[in-house]
Amino acid sequence: MVDKQFFLYDLAVTSLLPRGVSHYLREWLDYHLAAGVEHFFLYDTDGGEDVREVLKPYLSARLVDCFAVKGDDMTIPVYNDAVLKFKFACRLMAFIDTDEFIFPKAGGSIAEVVDEILSQDERAAALAINRQTFGSNGQVNADFSRGVLERFTRRAPDDWFIPPKDDALPVGNIHVKTIANPRFVRAIINPHFAYYFDGRFAVNSNGQRVTHWGNEPVLADKIVVNRYVKSRAEFLSATDDAEAFATNDRNDVFDAGILSYRKLRVGNYTPPKSFDREDYFRLLEKFLLPAARADTPEDFFAGKLETLLTCRALAGILRRSFPKDSRGSFMEEAALRAINRTHFTRMTFAEIMMMLRALPQILVLPYPVVSNIHRNCMNFVRQLISDYRRAARWDRFVETENYFELLASFRATIGNGDD
Q1: Residue after which a domain boundary falls, among 204, 237, 267
Q2: Of 23, 60, 247, 251, which alpha carbon lies 20 to 30 A from 282's?
């Protein structure tokens, strides 16, 4: 995985803000900041003044980016939008709802637990975390004088699970939520699961592969996602489904562990580092200048595409943020030259797909080396189209045809390039 120094944020959370969330939002943000989250990409369907007022200090501190969205069933679209736009801004991205709290059991940060598990298999691109469902504690109405974590301390058993009936999905803690390396995400297809580039996959907290929206048996020893049903009135204000409330209102087990974790983390909390362009320029210079040397051997570039694409994105941010500082353009072009040289190494399929996904941002850049990158990617795509046709993998064939059309549309606007 890429060194976290190359990212604006180590761990970011992407979430859709539902209507009526303002009462709970501050507690949810503060908890996850204490747990090690450095940034939030929030998509607001509420649009209310109450939400804007809660978010004001977090926006001022540059801890939150918030985008207005309209429409129903927007969770999957906003998750995919965040991956598309911010995959090079954060090293890890979590996809959760505002009634969910990620809880590492051993007291460390969320990212520390994720890194420990993913490091066991270099192919692992995401951690799939089982839920723990907390009920109403017998509360009928809302009580906003206390936070969610204090009010609701009773939950279902660890392995609570109701098998599906007919074509319905099962209910219970079998469901997972995902923390992923967003650069390997092909697409998010439901709120619980993503597809990854071939050769990459999600794992559970035991390092075992997870292939869909659930993980069984339920694992709750290292890290969980606490999901809070809340009181009957609060639940029904969000969804008019009394049967769903009755099913999920489980209060079998007392569990206040997350309160102890929060107290520990708040006591040791350090705010995320501020944006320092000189630090980023020094970091880019240290890594990219050796890569820019003509006599640097090709094996130096093997396996470094993800890092170099991240460097390119960071240099682009610096160029746009500080247009009078020529170092941004210089570093961006140096990163592109190094990216071009990775194309002559033994690239994995996931690296090729990562490269193709980055093309819309790269092909519009004014540097001569972009022509070389265009030509190399056209060769990749032609080979992939041929391979997919022979293998009758028509979904991949159609996706790759789209890349071919993208590259073809830029052919006339890109110069002759350089070597």
Answers
A1: 267
A2: 60
